[in-house]
Amino acid sequence: MANKSKLPLALGIAALLLVVVLGALVLSTGGKNEDKKAAATPTPSATGPIRDAGFEFVAQNVRCGVERVGTDALNKTPQGQYCLVTLGVKNTATEARVFTDSLQRAFTDAPAEVRSDPVAGVYANGDNQALVKEIPAGAQATGIVVFDIPKGAKLTRLELHGGVSGQGTVVPVS
């Protein structure tokens, strides 16, 4: 019976090790190399920071039409097209917290709801893995959140979440 209670802990440790190994592989191959065939850049239209569940967000840049993230040696390609969202995240809570990019959503004109692609995010961030580490109280981190949207689709809005219990906040993209 004691072995069954240790299973969730072992699975959690294995998942963390996988993220660390992927990050080390990206770092060891020399940084990022995003495909340069990106389409015109939509811009986030929220003015100033927005908040949800102990985090403050500033969507700094959105770039869609990216056909590959990573390096020449180690990369990932989308099923459709990648949209890379450069996101500033500030921890407004009183304790250190981890930002979870897998909770973030994008919406397209298709219309479709798309969850972020955390593995592509590891590749896109190269040697900057600030958004997969614990963010101390009051500190800020900036990184890229990646969405794989259908080819020809355009982002209309982002729904950013500070945690599982957060309601989320919407950022229009024009």
Key features of this structure:
12 strands; 36% strand; 174 residues; 4-stranded antiparallel sheet; alpha+beta; 2 helices; Immunoglobulin-like
Task: Give a structural overview.
The protein is of the alpha+beta class and 174 residues long. The chain has one domain (2-172): Immunoglobulin-like. Helix content is 20%, strand content 36%. The protein has two helices and twelve strands. The chain has helices at residues 2-28, 118-125; strands spanning 50-52, 55-66, 69-70, 75-76, 81-91, 97-98, 105-108, 112-115, 134-135, 140-149, 155-160, 169-172. The strands form four sheets. Strands 1-2-5-10 form a four-stranded antiparallel sheet. Strands 8-7-11-12 form a four-stranded antiparallel sheet, with no helix packed on it. A two-stranded antiparallel sheet has the order 3-4. A hairpin with a 2-residue loop joins β1 and β2 (55-66). It is globular. It starts with a helix and ends with a strand. Residues 14-40 have low confidence and may be disordered.
